[in-house]
Amino acid sequence: MSLIAQALVLEDDRSWQQILAEILNDVGLAADIYNNLADARAQLHEKAYRFAVIDLSLAGHDHLNQDGISALQDIQRLQPGCAAVLLTGFANVELAVSAIRDYGAYTCLRKENFRRGDFRSLVLEALSMAPDPAPSTTHPLTEAVNPPSSPEERAVAPKDKLPKSALLVEDDAGWRNLLIELLQECNYRVQASSSYGEASGWLKRQDFDLAVADLSLASSLEPEKNLDGYRLLASTRAAAIPTIVVSGVANTALIDQAYAEHNIFACLEKRSFNRATFLETVRNAEESQLEDPVLASLTDRERQVLNLLAQGLTNKEMAADLCITTNTVKRHLKSIFEKLSVTTRAAASAWASRMGLNTK
Questions:
Q1: What is the pLDDT of residue 168?
Q2: DSSP secondary structure, 61-99, as one string
Q3: How would you classify residue 240: left for phi > 0, otherwise alpha for psi between -120 and 50, otherwise beta?
Q4: Model's pTM, two decimal places?
Q5: pLDDT, position 225
Q6: What is the DSSP string of 204-239?
Q7: What is the pLDDT of residue 318?
Q8: What per-residue confidence (pLDDT) applies to 93?
Q9: Residue 271, pLDDT score
Q10: Residue 145 confidence (pLDDT)
Q11: Distance of alpha carbon 107 from the chain centroid
């Protein structure tokens, strides 16, 4: 991968220098590494940086040293377009708030909670928001994060090259960023939301090829009891969207309920989350769309009735077409609605259209 922009790493620990440089290089950033404030300060006058990782203390285990704050001030003054992250082993809430509010830090990370995948997601997120010093040049990172989205772009793109669309519903920012990165790695355009209401709105406005949802979406009223994710599963099932649950809920009864009532494709627990397992699950979910379990549950006659319903025929017209009575049509529709978890003809017709059943 060709390196496309510069990043500054101000860190006096060699192991951390190596870790940070590897991740930054992996996302296309060439890392300049310095272990003291003076050298880094000199380079801020010479080079343009898009991203910076700054250690708070540059004096070993001296928790009183805060050279990193001085570096943030220099970046804020000299290169306001650079996204700077404060990384430290001595952080507290007050310091984090001050770094972000007063010194322009993009965020503040604690070393003891550092995770490579989360940090990589954070870098990509910061780069997508930071101004590009070379806007006239095509930006590989921007292309990866923001694939073509306008109707014009989609119209000229080959059908097999159109991006797949995934709905992500997760109220924890860290998990949301991580899952966005992994879904993008599988070539999905991701619409992220943090609540049931927001996700429901997207389901009404847009078609999705995949959904990834948490079961417990925090509520200001009952943050520990809210299970809006279950209400969302009913919607994704009705829309015939393969759904992967990624949740911190470890109650086996609730997980069994999600499988039994909402026909989810898979449930992955956060406490044992594995990147490779998630990617494999996404690939399997894609393949499952070829043999949708809800579609497979319909009898041949029910498929015929659903197909005619999607074409806009009335019960009387369907009965005449299939040489059956209208009461028989009604019985088939009742069974279809139950299997699809829908309550209206319009919802059933929309489901059939998504599954390609509305052919004449």
A1: 93
A2: T-TT--HHHHHHHHHHHH-TTSEEEEEESS--HHHHHHH
A3: left
A4: 0.44
A5: 61
A6: HH---SEEEE-S----SS-TTT--HHHHHHHHHHHT
A7: 92
A8: 58
A9: 82
A10: 36
A11: 19
Exposed, middle or buried: residue 206 (CB in 10 Å: 0-12, 13-18, 19+)? exposed
- Predicted confidence at residue 234, as pLDDT, reads 84
Q: Supply φ then ψ for residue 88, to 5 degrees.
A: -155, 155
Residue ranges of the chain with per-residue pLDDT less than 50:
1, 132-161, 220-223
Q: What is the rounded CA–CA span in Å between residue 128 and residue 145?
A: 7
Q: Name the phi and psi angles at 98, rounded to 5.
A: -65, -40
- Residue 252: per-residue pLDDT: 79
CA distances from 138 to 48, 143, 350 (A): 18, 8, 39
Question: DSSP letter at 150?
Answer: S
Provide CB contacts within 8 A for 173, sequence distance 6+: none
Residue type, 272: S
Task: Show Cβ contacts of residue 185 under 8 Å, excluding neighbours closer than 6 positions.
Answer: 279
The token duo for 174 is 């860290």
Domains and CATH numbers, the chain: 5-135 (3.40.50.2300), 159-291 (3.40.50.2300), 294-354 (1.10.10.10)
CA 115, 121, 126, 131 torsion-angle sign: positive
What are residue 245's DSSP bridge partners?
213, 267
Q: How far is CA 302 from the centre of its chain?
A: 36
Tokens in use for 200?
């429901």
Residues 6+ apart with CB under 8 A from 71: 10, 37, 40, 41, 52, 54, 84
Give the pLDDT of residue 60.
62
- CA dist 184 and 211 (Å) reads 13
Cα–Cα distance between 159 and 301 in angstroms, integer? 32
For residues 43 and 195, give the distance between their C-alpha atoms in angstroms, rounded to a whole number: 44
Helix segments in the chain, DSSP class H: 14-26, 37-44, 67-78, 93-101, 116-129, 140-145, 151-156, 173-185, 196-205, 228-238, 252-262, 275-288, 293-297, 300-310, 315-322, 326-340, 345-354
